[in-house]
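Most newcomers find our protein records easier to grasp once they have seen one. A learned vocabulary of local backbone shapes supplies the integers on the structure line. An example says more than a description, so a record of this kind follows:
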Amino acid sequence: MKLLFIGDIVGKGGRRAVKKLVPGLRRKYNCSFCIANAENIANGVGMAASCIRDLQDCVEVFTSGDHVWDQKNWEHEVKQFDNVLRPANLSSRQPGRGWSIFRNPAGGELAVINLQGKVFMKESANCPFETVENILTQIPANIKSIVVDLHAEATSEMAAMAYFLDGKVTAVVGTHTHVQTADAKILPGGTAFISDVGMTGAERSILGREVDAVVEKCRSGMPRRLPVVETGIRLDAVVITYDHNSGRAFAIENISVMDDQEATINE
């Protein structure tokens, strides 16, 4: 089987690119399941019910990260969705769920776990290693396919998690930095790994924000608005090939495509 994992979706432009490109990408790569990190889906930061509904037809599961609660009312809206995850190692008093089991349209089930890193991250979170260990004991033995989204800053922490879980999960994919890394690989135990999938946001931008505004903020050190760039969108993702019966991954392939390449995808 194959699944598509999409990097952090940024704003309206990112949502538009997902709706435009993902159906074709799923056909081209024969992906029966799609996961997308959506913590920046609403105005470039946070999540909203209307934005999630906008993509329900092409994405099965939405993960998040440190910006999960940045939009007003999302802490109430999240309860409407069974397919939206927040980091499992946040306080248990927070709403939402950190992992769940989902049915693959092609048959069978898989578990998706959302975690947040601790190294260089502003938000407080419990130990992601201890949290995932506990979650793995709760997943039924017949569920072999398990995908982990580790939303983290440090590539060292992402790699440490991947090797820690090698042979125990199907894939460990990193999100958060918005920069697609070149270290996609299959680890010895059959776990697919990449430090960061990248983003679905503007090609000419700084992490999806206007270049001049970010440069000026860096130069001045003063707080200022950083507008989201909604045009010229690049979609970053990975395709993971795995055996549903064993949960072992066989291949992981980086994808990076501009939103005006729809015709090429559908060839």
About this structure: The chain has a mean pLDDT of 95. Helices lie at 11-29, 49-54, 74-77, 128-138, 155-165, 211-220, 262-265. The longest helix spans residues 11-29.
